[in-house]
Each structure stands twice: as C-alpha cells, then as structure tokens.
Specification:
alpha/beta; 6-stranded mixed β-sheet; 13 helices
Amino acid sequence: MADAKTAQEKLSRVDCEIEVTDRQACDAEILSVGGFSPLSGFMNEDAYSSVVENHRLPSGELFGIPVVFDSARDDLQPGKSVALTYQGKAIGVLDIESRYIPNKPLEVKKCYGTSSIEHPGVQMVAMEREHTYLGGALTGIALPDRPFPCKTPAEVRAGLPSNTHVVAFQCRNPVHRAHYELFTRALDAENVDSNGVVLVHPTMGPTQADDISGFVRYHTYEVLQKETGNPRVHWAYLPYSMHMAGPREALQHMMIRKNYGCTHFIIGRDMAGSKSCLDGEDYYGAYDAQDFAKECAPELGMQTVPSLNLVYTAEDGYLTADDAKAKGRKPVKLSGTEFRRKLRAGEDIPEWFAFKSVVDVLREHQ
C-alpha cells in the first residue's frame, strides 16, 4: 500500500479511471496488502498461461487460480495508467503492461475441472468477465470501504502468537456447532503444537448466488466470538471472491493463509466444492481437494490438518463417525434444507446444531 505522497503522485498521472466490480475490488485489495504474494499485480499473459496450465507462476512457485483484470474498453492499452475506483473511491492504480485475449475454454477446464456452464465458476468466467484481460503492476491507494473490517496480512500476523502453530479454518457460511467442534478439535491433531491456536478466516467477498451475504455472516461471526470467548480461537476476515474451484481453490486458500501467518490449514471434505445448477451433481470427489492440498503443502511450507467427519449423537454429543459406529450410536441429523425451513418458519432449532446467537442474527436479517 502506497504512502500518502506516493498515492497522490500516482493518481495525478493517471490517464483515466474505472469503477471496478465487487470481485475486482476483492482481488485489488488482496494484491495491495500482499495477500497474493509473491504476486504484486494483475497477471500478464505469461503468468496467466502458466497458472492455467500448471498451477505455477513462471518462476515455478505454486499458485492456484489466475488473478486477472478483465475489461471491454478498447482504449485501455499497454503504457496507460488507470485509477481503479470502488463505490467512487480510488483504491489503486493499474499500470497496464499487457492486453490479451484469454483462452477461456482452457482456463475453466484446467482451473475448474470442467467447461460446463452449470458450474458457478465457469459461469463467472464465461458470462461475468469481459473478453479482454489486462496485466500490470498495481499500486494500492486505499482499502475499499466495507461494512466489516478486513485486516491486512501484517495486521493479522501481528495479532497472532509467534512461537506456536497457527491453524487456518476457511469458511464461507455461518459457523455452526459442528464447524466449531471441527476447528477446535483440530488443535489436538498430532502435528499441531500443544499451545497452538486457530485462525477462523472467512472469505467475505462474492460467493455462490444463494449463499448468505458477507454482511450478515459478519454479524454471526461477531456474536459467536462473544458467546464462545475462546482465547485459542482468533478471528479475521478475508476480502476474497470465491470461485468454487475445488482442488485449485484449496491450493489458493492455503497459499493466502500462509501470507497471513498460518502454519497449518484445515482441509474439509469437498472443500470449495460445487454442484451443477441443473441436476445437483458434484463436480469434485469428496477428497479431491484434500489430496491435492496434501500434495502441494510440503513445497508451500504448510502442513494440512484433515477435517474430522463429526456426527452428533444424543448420548455422547459430537463424535467422529467411526467412534459413533464403534459405540453403536445413531447420528442425529438436520439437513441444511430443514434448517433453512425452520429458520423461515420461526421454529426451534436445536442448539446441538446451531448457536442460539447465530440463529438470532440470521432471523433478524431474514
């Protein structure tokens, strides 16, 4: 992020300005604060092609999904300097180095594992993004104004203990009881220090169309922090736009969390998974993201913590599915569909499933 003097100088020399989309604002912010390190600008064609083909930058460093700037404007040519504005506020200056037509069919096939328009990430690339990508260095001018705080990597690292492991938990939904049990029990994993901590780091940018908005989720996270008051659980918010890219996105999340000071990453079943919008079929296997993340973790300098398959039992509370089976316990279930129905109808929701404070917020914002 530029200092005030540099920011003013950069803005005084721009050729034009562009009002960016929500997704572009997320990418610009993470680039500006170092969350996509070693990347410091929107990808030129060589970097884009390398990441698409090999999930690596031209330098050889791992990178999951291309970070690109799309535009339909013909006047934006290499050599020009563009002020990027979000909600009317200048957040960065892009010095255009290249302009290229992406191979979108190859991009989606390689990054999302499918070229089907039924996949939300493919829809985004094919239908939301413009036909031309611009690459170049980005100078951060100011952080976007958001209804929730998004600490920079430096700020997050400063608030974390420096002498122990930090386990990242990624989510894009409200945290329910099973999630809480999952990430707190991750601290008992064999490869985590006995005094390790968890960083709950939800993605707060655009996700799937039917997901709960970041603003509402922010309120659920805030009340949950107060309700639990767990000193081994730290919270921060990431202005990231989800792609639902399964294995590739697991790598992207792990890479970003390393920049935010994490040493370990919880890989859930079907992480960043997606279903067809027509027939509901899964695009990825339940363990595809886990397997790919484990493969990449040593080179990235991270460790993975597999997500426990927890179930709730009336007799013993939350157990792993294997322990429940060994004890002859029958899991008690509540589907997401039934939870949403109960939420809309004002019916009681069992506290083993969801925290009361979280339910109250969700009902308030219905």
